[in-house]
Specification:
By secondary structure, the protein is α/β, with parallel strands linked by helices. It has two domains: 75 residues, no CATH class; 222 residues, Vaccinia Virus protein VP39 (Rossmann fold), CATH 3.40.50. 41% of the residues lie in helices and 15% in strands. The chain is built from eleven helices and seven strands. The protein is globular.
Length: 311
Amino acid sequence: MFPIYAPYRLQPSKLIARAAASPEDGSRSKMTTDGPLIRDITDTARWIAAQRARESERPDAVFRDPCARRLARERGEQIARAMQRAGDWHVVARTHIIDRMIEEQVRQGISLVVNLAAGLDTRPYRMNLPASLQWVEIDLPAILDYKEEILKAEKPVCALERIKLDVSNPVARREVLDRLGSEGKRTLILTEGLLAYLPESDVASLAADLARQPRFERWILDLMAPKLAKMLMRRFGSRLTEAGAPFKFAPKEGTEFFAPFGWKLVELRSHLKTAARLKRLPLVLRLFALLPESSSAGSRPWSAICLFEKR
């Protein structure tokens, strides 16, 4: 399952207020029975952090995130337990793939990483990155305020900047992208767990905005086929609706959706096949991992991390 992350279009001011009011003291308060399992944007980010923490605590972990447990707090673990049916394999595979892609791009000369809708991501703290690398996190004020408070005693391994704004606001987004683009650095864009919750028109607008910047050379994103989006909505739709984040973007063109905006697919790595290779798949899914996958929408459900380059 794609973990919920960014219901930006649905009254972000209310999401920010609810997120800021949610408890952050790490207490083991029980979830209320009369409210939704996933209440707001911080809950979704805590859930993903809990999944990263679970992987980090395995003796055979494929990555280590020492900050994840503190970011998840008990609320994140409660959600992860309640959503156990979805499993952790998708987040584990996604995190592993993106880690490797970022390492490869930095080795090839990328000097600026811009993480749009960064959530509770901790890569600037946990990855082996050069001190000269500039990393920019962009997200809603509430989520970045929460992360800054939890990680205030931690030191990032590279130069880290945080910009607080709603990335679905095209005017504010373009101003920030113009400023970052003017720095003249070879830039990698990361949109992890964001696009699935945006309308196609918003994804198209974002793709065009990123392509306008000459030095924005590469873009890492996650993508799923329409059949998978429909299947997941049937299975988990009530939870997605509770969080105000139904799936909206699963283009029938697959990776070709981005071609008119100047983006060319360089690499595609399947979540399912990666999870199988990492031995994180439940038994029922191991046979499905043997089937071929394509970058087109096709007739089978698939999801992948995609690396694009500017044409």
